[in-house]
Structure formats: structure tokens, C-alpha cells
Amino acid sequence: MTALGPLPEPEVLIKKVKVGGHDTHHGGAWKVAYADFVTAMMAFFLLMWLLGATNEDQRKGIADYFAPTVMESEKSGGSNGFMQGRSLEDPDGVAPHQRRAGMQPVAPYQAANGARAPARSDDGQLRKVESEIRKRLERDPGLKALVGQIRFSHTPEGLRIELVDKADYSMFGSGGTAMDPRARRLLAAVAETIDGLPNKIAIRGHTDAQPFSGATRGAAENNWTLSAGRAEATRAALAASGVPEERFSRLEGVADTEPFNPDNPFDPRNRRMSITLLRG
Fold first, then answer.
1. Phi and psi dihedrals of 185, rounded to 5?
2. Could you tell me which residue ranges the OmpA-like domain spans (predicted)?
């Protein structure tokens, strides 16, 4: 108190300090990381589903589709970008002076009438052969029952067509080289499909481990001679259906040394014939 009256109340100032930048520092980074995680998990589950929903041949086809092809060129028609070195001027889209690294395409061959047949990729042509044989078997009521006994596999050597025995059906009589009529029709369908192709053919005969009755070591008749004889019978059936003799590259009899089912040497599926369309 003073003579003039009471003292005024002191003025209180409140200063609010706003700290900026803290929220923005952590704002969206976790969202990007989470989106990447979800995308990776989705791709993983799609891959697992694809592996479970396809067979061996389909997975091989998918792998071949995505396999990179390396091209070397003295005169590039582009770059590794959008067109990947392809030329807009050439009808086939390839740059001039091209050298292909890796697998070579099928060399053009001279047809019977002297015309030059177009060159095609080995892999693409062999897959067409497989598709056509499958269609022929499906269309033929007499052969449709044998669809489960023919197997296709694409190997570095070429397209392998295996005719496999079952417990209730054999292509040859027991211990002999006489071929069942349905097996001959099956080979005729194969021969018609590969007619006109330039690929050489290799044939390999396989048996199970069942020995000849009463056979002794070094006997004239054994699984080696049997598998070789059946390979020759297969070659003769293909030749009788129109395959030229010059297309046969080799015949082999390997007895029971390469079983289809290694866990059971007496499995009837070990008795089979392998016909391979060789690359190149």
C-alpha cells in the first residue's frame, strides 16, 4: 500500500514454444517400409502357389521364358533399354551383324524339293513337337489310354520322349523284342509328328532288374542284349512309319543301369524306351 493506493498486479506473460519438425521426421518412412514388406510377402506366397500348382515341364517352360538371352553385336541397333538392341528397320527386329552368344538356333536345312526351309529356335520347335504329339494321342481313341505312359522332358541334349511300361501294360512281350500293336501305333504318331524335321534321333532301351530265367553270367541273352534289341525294334518301327534312315544318330541298350525308379529296381516303369530329338 502507498499513499496513492494499492500497487497494480504484475503482468504475467506466458510464452508457448512450438517445436517443429519432430512429427515430420518420422511421418511416412514406416509406411514405405511396410508397403515393401507386404509386396515381398505377396510375391513370396505367389511363388509358393506357382510351385505347387505346376508340374516339372510347366516350371521348365516358365524358367525358359524368363531366361535372359545375351546378344553381342558389332553394330548395335539400340541399347539395353526399351527396345533392347532391336532394330526398327529389320522385319525380325534384330540389328545387323549380330552374333548370338549361348544356344545357337537350328541351322537352315535343304528340303527335299531344294527349297530352303526357315530356321527356327530349337527350343520352340521341340515344344511344338511335344504339343502336337499330345494332341494326336488325345484325338485317337485307341491311343488315349496310353497318354499316361508317355513322358516328355526337355534336356540339354534335346526333347526326350519316353514310352514307359506299367504293371498292366508292356510295349514288348516278356523277355522279347516283339512290339505290341498299340505301341506301334504310338510310334507311328510320333513318326508323323517329327516327319520333315532336321533333328537327328537317338534311341535308348531300358529294362528292369529282373534277370532272364536261368541266365548265367556271360550268357548270350541278358538285359543288355534285350535293351539293345528293343532299341533296334523301336528304330525299325519309326523307319517303317516314314522316318529316313539317315536321321538315326545312335542306338543304345543300357539294361537296368538307369532306372526310372531307383528305389525299386523291379518297378515295371523301369522298362521303357527313350527317343530323343537331338538339338541342332
1. -65, -40
2. 159-280
Distances 47 to 55, 78, 145 between C-alpha atoms, Å = 14, 33, 34
Model confidence, pTM = 0.54
**CB of 215 within 8 A of CB of 221?**
yes
DSSP-assigned letters across all residues of 1-63? -BTTBPPPPPPP---PPP--SHHHHHSSHHHHHHHHHHHHHHHHHHHHHHHHHS-HHHHHHHH
> Which three three-digit cell numbers place residue 8?
497494480
Separation between Cα atoms, residue 15 and residue 211, nearest integer Å: 103
Domain ranges of the chain: 122-280
Separation between Cα atoms, residue 104 and residue 115, nearest integer Å: 22
pLDDT in tens, 38-61: 898 998 888 888 788 887 777 777
What is the DSSP pairing of strand 272-278 with strand 158-164? antiparallel
- Ranked by mean pLDDT, the top range of 64-73, 113-122, 192-201 is 192-201
